[in-house]
């Protein structure tokens, strides 16, 4: 396999190693010999725990996309996980999928990316999450090495910083309604899409469909899915927020 890697003409395929867990067993191979592993299905290479006095805040988020819990190590990682869960192009997500090992010319280094993402196209994406003001030289070097490894095997690499706060606050709210059960009954879904074929305020449109207590969870689920639209960056969602069906132009009047 190493001979085949060299035939590709990219020394990164042998310079980097991937160290991962699968079915409880540890594996460590050259990048060129392991990049086709379905990393969306592997186990995290380190545990998610939070100890008093530590700067991180770890936990588990239930992903509607994966239909399982996915770990995170900070609120910022949790927010990125929510955004990935809402992205219609994302089909699978795993956290801390592997250790990437390399030598920087002076010493051995390793880095565990935050997320491995499988897209609807089959493409793989590695996501590392860190706020710009928390970046140091070591982190920048680790991200650059990870991007280099991704480039060698045709994976996308994304460095994700802090999301826009108002937009993120709205998406966190909608995430409460991400589960499929919030989209039932189907008759309410159809009626909401019909009512909001012309832009209306969230509150008034919900009332046209029926009892708001029953209608609003379905409405928020459709906003989570993107089948209904609202300006999630312009202000926090409220009763007067303008809502319209996907594919319709927002009313400007």
TrEMBL record:
It comes from the Bacteria. Residues 87-158 form the TnsA endonuclease N-terminal domain. It holds the Pfam family Tn7_TnsA-like_N. This is TnsA endonuclease N-terminal domain-containing protein. It comes from Streptomyces nanshensis.
């Amino acid at each position: 396999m190493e001979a085949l890697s060299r035939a590709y003409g990219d020394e990164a395929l042998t310079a980097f190693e991937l160290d991962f867990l699968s079915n409880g067993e540890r594996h460590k191979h050259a990048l060129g010999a392991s990049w086709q592993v379905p990393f969306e299905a592997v186990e995290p290479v380190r545990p998610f725990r939070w100890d008093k006095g530590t700067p991180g805040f770890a936990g588990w988020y239930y992903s509607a996309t994966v239909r399982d819990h996915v770990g995170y190590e900070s609120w910022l990682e949790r927010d990125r996980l929510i955004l990935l869960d809402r992205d219609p192009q994302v089909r699978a997500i795993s956290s801390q999928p592997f250790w990437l090992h390399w030598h920087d010319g002076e010493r051995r280094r390793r880095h565990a990316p935050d997320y491995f993402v499988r897209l609807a196209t089959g493409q793989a994406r590695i996501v590392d999450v860190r706020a710009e003001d928390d970046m140091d030289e070591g982190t920048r070097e680790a991200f650059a090495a990870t991007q280099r490894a991704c480039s060698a095997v045709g994976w996308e690499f994304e460095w994700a910083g802090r999301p826009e706060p108002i937009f993120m606050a709205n998406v966190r709210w909608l995430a409460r309604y991400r589960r499929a059960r919030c989209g039932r009954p189907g008759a309410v879904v159809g009626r909401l899409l019909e009512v909001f074929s012309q832009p209306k305020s969230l509150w008034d449109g919900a009332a046209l469909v029926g009892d708001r207590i029953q209608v609003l969870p379905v409405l928020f689920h459709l906003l989570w899915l993107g089948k209904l639209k609202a300006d999630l960056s312009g202000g926090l969602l409220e009763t007067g927020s303008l809502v319209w069906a996907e594919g319709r132009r927002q009313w400007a009047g």
